[in-house]
Amino acid sequence: MLGIMIALLSGALMSVQGVFNTDVTKNTSLWVSTAFVQFTALLVCLAAWLVTDRSSFMALAQVPRKYALLGGVIGAFITVTVVRSMGLLGPAKAAMLIVIAQLLVAWLIELFGIFGMEKTEFSIRKLIGFAVAVAGIVTFEL
């Protein structure tokens, strides 16, 4: 149950953040807004680290798959693409398409065992679930 609540909170925060970032971009630029978002995220993370963790940053050198360290780079492009899509499509349509893309890519990562994830078997039920989600978006937009 805790995982469900955290996932729901994450989705809600992503939508609110996208709207906020789009608003900031209207008064600055896409890259200034994105840099500010990433910088303030860094400050919050450093403060949380100082209060709760204080483990060594040198542990990053022990990450076996070095490509996994590109999460922050990807995060910058997530911010940029969310801002642009919300500005062009509006929050609801952008969020729906973002969620569908997340679902599809996550399923493909599991299906093919990409990035060190455990490979799962193809399931017609998951395919039908994905099709229902897409149909829901089409219905929502009509």
Portion of residues in beta strands equals under 5%
Uncertain parts: none
Shape: globular
The biggest sheet, with number of strands, parallel, antiparallel or mixed sense and barrel status, is:
none
Task: Count the beta strands.
Answer: 0
Count of domain modules: 2
Gap between N and C termini: 33 Å
| Global structural class | mainly alpha
State the share of residues found in helices, binned by percent: over 70%
Count every helix, treating DSSP H or I runs of 4 or more residues as helices.
5
Order of helices and strands: HHHHH
Mean pLDDT comes to 93
What's the alpha carbon Rg, rounded to whole Å?
18 Å
In short:
With 142 residues, the protein is mainly alpha-helical. It has helices at 2-27, 30-52, 71-89, 91-112, 124-141.
Structure notes:
- The protein is an all-alpha fold and 142 residues long.
- The protein has two domains: 1-88, no CATH class; 90-142.
- It is built from five helices and no strands.
- The chain has helices spanning 2-27, 30-52, 71-89, 91-112, 124-141.
- The two termini are 33 Å apart.
- The model has no long low-confidence stretch (mean pLDDT 93).
